[in-house]
Every structure is written in structure tokens, then in C-alpha cells.
Amino acid sequence: MESSPTKQLIANFPLCFKNGHTINRLAFWCVKCGMIAQDSQVLGQVSSIVSDTADIRASYHCSCGYDNVYRIRLKDDKSYSWLTDDAWKERRPPKQSLLTRLSQRYYKFIWLLKMKWICFCMKRNLRKLQSVVQNSSA
Ligand SMILES: [Zn+2]
Q1: What are the residue ranges spanned by the domains of the chain?
Q2: Distance 105 CA to ligand 1 centre (A)
Q3: Which of 27, 46, 77, 102 is deepest in the core (most CB within 10 A)?
Q4: What is the pLDDT of residues 24-78, one digit of tens each?
Q5: Rounded distance, CA 12 to CA 48, Å?
Q6: What is the C-alpha separation between 41 and 37, in angstroms, rounded?
Q7: Centre of ligand 1 from the C-alpha of residue 61, in Å
């Protein structure tokens, strides 16, 4: 028999994995009426059997009378799965290759360079314009 959790789940947060992935809090809502649960109303516990996985058991007694029970498994690669009545559902993190991460960084860098170049051109054009105005007025 598993004992039901009696402590507030939020006491276990923020949740830090060894690789630095941190989860500040989780949001829960009543599966019956959709009411968002306040942190203080969610009881639960976190157990880490494997270092890259955190198993969460939580419960929330809604004011509509429904007793919500949640089972969530969080992983340090930002994926997570949750148990519904019939099965584990899973959500995988969007795959980001090294190439896209690098290109994103370079894109920012190139954008900055571009902005500087545009500013430079504008200044130069302005100077040209000024000299033209001065020449014509002279
Ligand atoms: Zn409810």
C-alpha cells in the first residue's frame, strides 16, 4: 500500500536535476471542473529513483468535491510523462540539433553586425547630405 502524501508539493520545488535543468513549479487543475489549483492546495511528494528522473505523486481536493490524483514523471531532458486512467502519456522535448543552436547564436551575431553596418551607412549618407547642403548654400 502506498501512503497518500500529506505535505505540500511546492515544498519540493524548485526541482533541480544534476544537468542543471530546473523546474520552478508545476500547475495543476481539476480534471473535472477545470479549476486551477493553488500551490497550497496541492499535496504531494517527489521521489527520484534514478538521478535523471523525478516521479511526482500529487493530489488536489477540488472545491467541486472531486479528488484529483496526479502521477507525473519529469526527466532532465525536459520530457515528461503523466499517468491517466488508462496509460502513461508522454511528451518529448522538441529536438534541437547542435547545428540549429549554433546557427541561432550566429544569427544574433550577424544581426548585430548588420545593425552596426546600417548605422555606419546612415551616418555616412547624412554627412554626404550635409556637405551637399553646405555646398549649395555657399
Ligand atoms: Zn473541480
Answers
A1: 9-91, 96-138
A2: 45
A3: 46
A4: 989 899 989 999 999 999 999 999 878 899 999 999 999 999 999 999 999 999 8
A5: 12
A6: 6
A7: 8
